[in-house]
Write a structure and sequence with these properties.
about 45% helix, Rossmann fold, alpha/beta
């Protein structure tokens, strides 16, 4: 048995039109899964799905959805079931961070948006897919958190709070769903070279400065996180639940 084989499995990956989410969707498809590409804008989703389908015909569809809208998330789930019949893997990757600076300056609207998009939307989506997984006695849910949720920060405080909450969400749900063989885990990336974190690495000087404290002396690439997601989604991770897998080049050690 290939422990990483995902043939016959169906995965939803939110925020998968670029960056970490895109890499995860591509690698899941490479292992045989059907994947649903989703983010707010239809065009980028369709481009990623088309690219995957070139390499793996029929493996991907695009279903744009705004994670802040419960109706959009339900449509994402419904369209996935219509296309592929079921949902075996959920990767909650989409997130927001509209504020950068000390928490004393954050507005109520900004704080609520971070909590709603980074915690509540994950809760909604998991509620929508977990019942069928539990009924089949099999499923994997992966929430993309952040090492920001493991330590204090003077500049992305609300975001870090939301990512710490995601870790606890995974622990709670792992207890609830475990008897039905549905696993719930988090991945906590360090600084990865994506558009989401571009301000921290978009010049050679900034990249060098950001990587100096990392034992491996480099920033992460999306595939560094995608490999962890494949592990958690597959038979290889069958005895792992309720955990936070830190993938940060050693930054937090």
């Amino acid at each position: 048995m290939n422990l990483f084989d995902l043939t016959g499995k169906v995965a939803i990956v939110t925020g998968s039109s670029r960056g970490i989410g895109k890499a995860i969707a591509e690698r899941l498809a490479e292992q045989g899964a059907k994947v649903v590409i989703s983010s707010r804008k239809a065009g980028p989703c369709e481009e990623v799905a088309a690219s995957i389908n070139v390499a793996h015909p029929g493996a991907a569809i695009a279903v744009p959805a705004n994670i802040s809208t419960k109706e959009d998330l339900q449509r994402l789930v419904d369209e996935t079931r219509k296309a592929f019949g079921q949902i075996d893997i959920l990767v909650c990757n989409a997130a927001s961070n509209p504020y950068y600076g000390p928490m004393e300056g954050i507005s109520d609207d900004q704080f609520r948006k971070i909590l709603d998009n980074n915690i509540v939307s994950n809760h909604w989506l998991i509620q929508m897919v977990a019942p069928e997984m539990r009924a089949r006695k099999e499923g994997s849910i992966v929430v993309i958190s952040s090492i920001g949720g493991l330590r204090g920060t003077p500049i992305i405080g609300a975001y870090a709070i939301s990512k710490a909450a995601d870790m606890q969400l995974a622990r709670n749900l792992a207890h609830e769903f475990g008897p039905d063989n549905v696993r719930v885990n988090c991945i906590a990336p360090g600084l990865v070279k994506t558009d989401f974190a571009k301000a921290l690495w978009d010049t050679p000087q900034a990249e060098t400065r950001s990587s100096q404290a990392i034992p491996l002396r480099r920033l992460g690439e999306p595939d560094d996180i995608a490999g962890a997601a494949v592990y958690l989604a597959s038979r290889a991770g069958a005895w792992m639940t309720g955990q936070v897998m830190v993938v940060d080049g050693g930054n937090t050690i």
